[in-house]
Amino acid sequence: MNQLEIKNLTVTIDDKPILKDLSLTVPRGEIHAIMGPNGTGKSTLAKALAGHPDYTVTTGEVLLDGVSILEMEPDERARAGMFMAFQYPSEISGVSIANFVRAALQSRLAEGEELDATGYYKKLYQKMDLLKIDRKFTSRSVNEGFSGGEKKRCEILQMAMLDPAYAILDETDSGLDIDALRVVADGVNSLRGPKLGILLITHYQRLLNYIIPDRVHVMYDGRIVKSGSKDLALELEAKGYDWVKELAPVG
Amino acid sequence: MSDETTVIDIDREKGNFKYDMKYAFDAGTGLNEAVIDYICDVKGEDDWVRAFRKKALKIFEEKPLPTHWASKDLETIDFDKIRYYLSQGQKAKRTWDEVPADIKATFERLGIPEQERKYLAGVEAQFDSEAAYSNIKEAVGKQGVIFVGSTEGLMNHPEIFRKWFGKVIPIGDNKFSALNSATFSGGSFIYVPPGVKVSHPLQAYFRINAENFGQFERTLIIADEGSEVTYMEGCTAPKFATATLHSAVVELVALKGAKIEYITVQNWSANVFNLVTKRAIAEEDATVKWIDCNIGSRLTMKYPGVVLKGRHARGEVLSIALANDGQHQDTGAKMIHLADETTSNIISKSISVGEGRATYRGMVNIPKHLKGCKNNTECDALLINSTSRTDTYPAITVRGNRNFVQHEASVSKVSADQIFYLMSRGLTEGEAMSLSVNGFVNELTRQFPMEYSVELKRLIDLEMEGSVG
Fold it and tell me: Would you give the distance in Å from CA B459 to the centre of its chain?
């Protein structure tokens, strides 16, 4: 039961099917990587799981620890334990990171209950140190004027603060230089544990040198066409994405 | 929509309740000379005040509604159906215990006595036409600071009052300043002696309780040379099915080197026409800062201004307007430069929600013969829905080449992606909207006194919660 189960999921945008009967299970405690060429539906999967209103689920089911989440609003899914690190996170002008994360944590408390400010800042600073984020960062507006690396680190910081049951990292490595990549990977690795299931979406194999996945799935044309151990990523790197096209079912 | 059967009417909004009152003094409906005489008689005013009021009535009757540039909605005000004077007595009490029970209960629910104990130097609480309570801390009074109602001001301190009354805003400035000059009652008269710095704010709270009523408070603040004072006003009214009118005139005089900060957080219910004229004169080295937060009302028309009369004078208007469904916030600022090296700063932020409409009107005037004058104008509008509307009319007239002007305007929209991002972190749609809107005004509210930025945030949260789902 302690797993994220995606069963026969078909998702459309403007009536065009993007995900086609996709099935995948990520147990807590494991990291699963999804690889695949551009335009194959990887980000659609992430956004559909998070509940983006532009994506319509036509068939299928998604169970979070046995509970169906497809009828839930994005905020309800988040409070149920789902987290998505965005490829392109939005800028929120005038809202500091400290206040943003605080509001997100506050939304998880019962009405009338107040977040303990001292405990909050202690945890925030601890996680920031872990991710090598400068303390001054907390007073900056969310994602406003951030470099690519800062945006991604900010996403991982939120993940660390919100303690999700399942995290989907959508192209977290894109736009990062090698040093930033290492910091982000260290952060993700430090959060790794039996309570957290991670779905790592990436175009490139290089991230998987730093975050070693338990399973690798290859996606093509809205489907998982091959699954295997971490070695699959290396095979894919060697053979290129043309190889997966041959694996796709005809039609 | 009659509330007659219930004694008290409560809604989720703090200000939306009323007590059924039997008023001891009631001028009846409609406006004519007899109503003016009634007001003068119950107040026991001198002949000069009576003459002033009657002259104003004539100007009010002659002036057309400014619908050639302002909203046609003004035409729906039925001046014959409004009650122009309602009170339980003309003399403000000095202790809360002497205030009639219902009125005291009203202000207790609005938290006024508590705020007074916590952080205010003085409080005036106006209920319909008259102040029910007015008092300043003993220490402040001993410094020679005067803080009383307008009637008390003109009777007990005529030597200061008459010198400035109607001088910053003449009767005929506009139709509504004329209306106020004819019917004014309540409001504050403040005098701060030279060099006195009032360390805590003075506060006035304007409460409308009656239906079909017009509140016409008149405020005059004089800060003598080198003095400093902060004045805050709050306003609420219950929700009525019919229109209520609030038409104040506020005149500020900052003499040489004085500083006045005037803060408004209004939270009128959606039936109130709020047509207010506010202007200040700043003498040499003086500073006047208007902080103006307009939430609620059906139509607000308000353009606080500063006449920069002396060298080095500085004027500022920082304003926030939130126009929800069915509301029109027509606000702005006026800066009239009359001396060298005067500086003005206008920062206006408006938020339009649903079919709400926000209008910014600015007037900045720097004549050719002056030098070293500066104006900075920034107006930013935030649209929440595709049906929301915003308009900007900045009129900046700068002549000569020895002055500096800077103007920036922006319109932004809360995007669906932004809301999705916030919701994906656990915030409800309403909380996501609130956070975006609070972020939008944050740069400005940081400059407000803490108590007021907290209150403003609470009001924005309430408005935004109600605007979704």
Answer: 16
Least CB-CB distance to B443: which of A74, A84, A94?
A94
CA distance B145 to B136: 9
Average pLDDT of span A202-230: 93
Contact B219, B147 (CB under 8 A): no
Tell me whether residue A153 is in a domain. Answer: no
Answer yes or no: is A121 within a domain: no
Question: Would you say residue A141 lies in a domain?
Answer: no
Q: Quick: pLDDT tens for A91-133.
A: 999 999 999 999 999 999 998 899 999 999 999 999 999 888 8
Q: Which residues of B touch A (CB under 8 A)?
A: 415-418, 420-429, 431-432, 435-436, 438-443
pTM of the model as a whole? 0.86
Residue of A nearest to B430 (CA): A75
Residue A204 lies in a domain: yes
In chain A, whose CA is at the least distance from the CA of B444? Answer: A94
CATH number at residue A67: 3.40.50.300
Q: Are A35 and A91 a contacting pair, CB within 8 Å?
A: no
Do the chains contact at B428 and A107, CB–CB below 8 Å? yes
Domain extent at residue A182 = 3-91+164-247
Q: What is the pLDDT of residue A26?
A: 98
- Distance CA(A6)–CA(B396), nearest Å, equals 60
Chain B interface includes A175 (CB < 8 A): no
What pLDDT band is residue A250 in, cutting at 50, 70 and 90? low
Gap from A85 CA to chain B (nearest CA, Å): 9
Mean pLDDT score, A138-159: 93
Q: Is residue B451's pLDDT more than 80?
A: no
Number of domain units in chain A: 1
Q: CA separation (Å) from B62 to B32, B48, B338? A: 13, 21, 30
